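Data deposition worksheet. Section B asks for the primary sequence of the deposited chain exactly as it was used as input, without tags or linkers unless they were present during the calculation. Section C holds the resulting structure in token form. Section D is free text for depositor observations; keep each observation to a single sentence. Incomplete worksheets are returned to the depositor.
Section A, Depositor: J.P.
Section B:
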Amino acid sequence: WSTPVGVGVTATYRAVWRGRASAAVTIRQRANVVLERRRSGSGFVVSVSGMRSLWRKQVVVQRRQSGGWRTVRRVALIDPVRSSGRVSVSKATLRLPVAKGTPLRALLPGSQAAPCYVESVSRTVRA
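Section C:
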């Protein structure tokens, strides 16, 4: 049998049948990390959403260089955004001194995402 599980944070489950329990299974979740250009065209906005607030957590903005990712800037999520429902969204705005066309991403490290989430990364965008 199966059952749908809709959790927004990391959770551990086990099944119990006729007094016997199964082994525990942990379902690890990622926060939703988005890196996008500001509408004005100058700078970027990093936003992180999830079931738990990530306000004041550190996000790392990285650029692709020599086949790997290099840290360009660390930013704190300082602007809690009010949203409907149970989803919490925090964001930060920043300017980056990178050449046009440079691949960028935002990373929420595991140390900042714990204990509710695991390391999360945004899609790659071009400067």
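Section D:
The two ends are 48 Å apart (CA to CA).
The longest strand covers residues 68-76.
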